[in-house]
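[step 3/7] inverse_fold.run input=structure_tokens len=514
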């Protein structure tokens, strides 16, 4: 008999699984999902994820074979970590802090991750900032038996373009599939609200849902404020809209909270705004929809329009959605630059997997395997969980990815068009006005590039950048040069400053205060 020790997630096709596995469907959600995980493992073992739709990470004790078994979903929507002690015991779970609290854990900084972080702004790949703590990567299982770890991969994103369908046929398949998911995303006895920006993803999710209330972020500065567009969409669809005003004071004040609960440093400035939004939303709902996944699946980023121009050269530089520091600059800035620790090495296997496919598919696959897991899903999971909010992402689903994996790139992005996600937007236009469905992607904009230079708000930033702690990792003169250049008018440097600052805040939370 197997015993489930830790599980976090949400199973969408639970009705079918309860029927197939002989589980009482009247159980509470928590009881039935835990029962499904155990029964699915006992029946299908390592291939159990092939039968489950949803998001999940767990570990269980297999009494029959005297082993630990752990599994993470195909896209890594829930995190999973593991650590082997000096006396060869496995510590594992969905929170690093829980591993740190156990006997045998030794806290040490894995400093080489800083070198990767300064390019990517997030923690990519298997290793973490804690020496010895590793991530179980998406689409992988882990077994620990007789003191030995075995890790296997059960899912690899695979792309097989099908040129037999028209744009409208692809749009119909997307719409039929996404619409059909919603009865599984929310149970009959549950209610949810929906995050809403000015973009097509959240608008499409809202239009297909039965949510009566939406939640948006806004700023006093109209240049960065999308909340007006969100309110117009909510009004058009007959839904209420809550606007969370994010001030610079609140933004900077919550950074330590975010870095502590993220457990890893994250230089994505939108994560701070998202944390504030989660806390505000959790005051009036426990479940909220969000639209992650479609950008990576269906070609949503503006940079994808350059794919054909990059061509085969991609494999020499494209490491994902962010790439803010080159090696020469890091050599100047870092006290302990390590030769051979290169971000491009994290994605070499992905380029091997996509050999012979078009450049857009290669870029998308890198972002699906690296960026989504390391930044987007980590942020969604950590910030919602610590706020007491459960986020469900209808567009992140194997059935949606299946469509994207078969769709030719010409229906995602074309170099000569201002439009991205062409087929996806066409699908969304079936329930949204054209002006919303085809609205140009703005991204989750944060006015941090302005706030960072304002002495009314950036006191802690300046103190951290020029502290004794910073001098342990960075060359002070180089940091000052970047900062002075930024304050002097080169606003492009804000990302570098923010990435260094977030690392220092995280380090302070885990290695100075504790």
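[step 3/7] decode complete -> sequence:
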């Amino acid at each position: 008999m197997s015993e489930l020790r830790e599980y976090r997630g949400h199973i969408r096709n639970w009705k079918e699984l309860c029927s197939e596995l002989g589980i009482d469907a009247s159980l509470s959600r928590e009881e039935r999902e835990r029962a499904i995980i155990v029964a699915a493992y006992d029946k299908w073992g390592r291939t159990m994820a092939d039968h489950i739709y949803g998001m999940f990470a767990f570990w269980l004790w297999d009494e029959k074979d005297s082993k630990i078994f752990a599994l993470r979903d195909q896209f890594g929507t829930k995190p999973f970590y593991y650590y082997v002690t000096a006396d060869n015991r496995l510590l594992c779970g969905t929170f690093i802090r829980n591993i740190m609290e156990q006997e045998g854990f030794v806290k040490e900084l894995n400093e080489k991750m800083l070198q990767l972080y300064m390019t990517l702004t997030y923690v990519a790949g298997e290793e973490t900032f804690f020496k010895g703590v590793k991530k179980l990567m998406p689409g992988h299982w882990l077994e620990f038996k007789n003191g030995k770890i075995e890790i296997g991969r059960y899912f690899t994103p695979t792309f097989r373009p099908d040129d037999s369908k028209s744009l409208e046929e692809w749009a119909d398949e997307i719409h039929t599939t996404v619409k059909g998911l919603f009865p599984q995303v929310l149970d009959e006895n549950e209610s949810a609200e929906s995050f809403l920006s000015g973009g097509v993803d959240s608008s499409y999710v809202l239009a297909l849902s039965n949510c009566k209330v939406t939640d948006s972020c806004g700023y006093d500065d109209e240049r960065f404020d999308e909340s007006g567009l969100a309110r117009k969409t909510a009004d058009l669809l007959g839904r209420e809209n809550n606007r969370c005003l994010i001030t610079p004071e609140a933004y900077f004040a919550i950074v330590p909270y975010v870095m502590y609960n993220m457990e890893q440093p994250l230089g994505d400035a939108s994560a701070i705004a998202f944390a504030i939004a989660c806390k505000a939303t959790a005051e009036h709902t426990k479940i909220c929809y969000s639209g992650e996944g479609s950008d990576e699946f269906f070609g949503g980023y503006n940079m994808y329009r350059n794919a054909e121009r990059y061509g085969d050269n991609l494999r020499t530089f494209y490491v994902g959605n962010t790439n803010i520091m080159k090696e020469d600059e890091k050599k100047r800035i870092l006290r302990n630059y390590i030769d051979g620790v290169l971000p491009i090495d994290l994605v070499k296997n992905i380029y091997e997997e996509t050999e012979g496919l078009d450049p857009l598919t290669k870029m998308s696959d890198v972002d699906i395997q690296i960026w989504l897991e390391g930044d987007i899903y980590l942020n969604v999971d950590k910030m919602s969980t610590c706020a007491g909010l459960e986020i469900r992402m209808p567009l992140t689903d194997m059935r949606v990815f299946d469509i994207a994996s078969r769709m030719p790139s010409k229906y995602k992005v074309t170099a000569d068009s201002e439009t991205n996600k062409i087929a996806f937007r066409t699908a969304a236009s079936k329930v949204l006005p054209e002006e919303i469905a085809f609205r140009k992607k703005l991204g989750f904009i944060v006015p941090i590039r302005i706030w960072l230079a304002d002495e009314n708000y950036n006191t802690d930033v300046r103190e951290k950048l020029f502290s004794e702690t910073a001098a342990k990792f960075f060359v002070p003169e180089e940091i000052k040069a970047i900062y002075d250049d930024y304050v002097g008018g080169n606003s492009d440097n804000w990302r570098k400053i923010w990435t260094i600052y977030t690392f220092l805040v995280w380090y302070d939370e885990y290695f100075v205060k504790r």
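[step 4/7] annotate
The mean pLDDT is 95.
The radius of gyration is 23 Å.
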